[in-house]
Structure formats: structure tokens, C-alpha cells
From TrEMBL:
Alphabetical list of InterPro entries matching this protein: RelE/ParE_toxin (IPR007712), RelE/ParE_toxin_dom_sf (IPR035093)
Keyword annotations from UniProtKB, A to Z: Toxin-antitoxin system
Protein name: Plasmid stabilization system protein ParE
Lineage of origin: Bacteria, Pseudomonadati, Bacteroidota, Flavobacteriia, Flavobacteriales
Organism superkingdom: Bacteria
Species this protein is from: Epilithonimonas zeae
Length: 95
């Protein structure tokens, strides 16, 4: 089954703000971060059940080399990404 992946408005903001922050630290790092996240989006689309359930129906994919997790839910043949969460943030902010 082919899954469609969509980002919530909050996830889009998370991704953009994080990429801009990395880019401000080192030229090209924001692009590397974005490519890494997009690679994980592809992995999630190809095998969404691979990543563990953490909170109800929400799953979490930990991104290697960057302190982020992708929080998503599978609804039918749709994958909804709710957050690209920085694990260095206050854990109470985690969706």
C-alpha cells in the first residue's frame, strides 16, 4: 500500500524554523538537515509501521545526526506529520 504523507501547519513551521536556525549556524547545514528529514519522510512513507507507537496512535521516528524526532500518525492510507520536534527542547512542549 502506498501512503500519502502530509505535514500539519505546526510541522511545517517546525521544519522551516529548524532549517533556518541550522543555516544561520553554518552555511549548508540547514540544507543537510532538510535533506535528512526528507529522507526520513520517505522511509516513513515506505514503511510507516516500522517506527514505534509512543503516545496513543502517534509514532516517533528519531533522526540520526540531528536531535529531532518526527511525530506522526497513520490514518487510513494517509500519514500525518504533527511535529518535527527538537529533543533538546523542554519535553513538556512535545506534542
Amino acid at each position: 500500500m502506498k501512503y500519502n504523507l502530509s505535514l500539519s501547519p505546526n510541522a511545517e513551521v517546525d521544519l522551516l524554523e529548524s532549517a533556518l536556525w541550522y543555516e544561520s549556524r553554518q552555511i549548508g547545514l540547514g540544507e543537510k538537515f532538510t535533506k535528512k528529514v526528507e529522507a526520513y519522510f520517505s522511509r516513513i512513507q515506505n514503511n510507516p509501521l516500522h517506527y514505534p507507537l509512543k503516545n496513543g496512535n502517534l509514532r516517533e521516528a528519531y533522526i540520526q545526526k540531528f536531535p529531532f524526532i518526527i511525530i506522526y500518525e497513520i490514518v487510513g492510507n494517509e500519514i500525518i506529520v504533527f511535529a518535527v520536534f527538537n529533543t533538546h527542547q523542554n519535553p513538556t512542549k512535545k506534542p
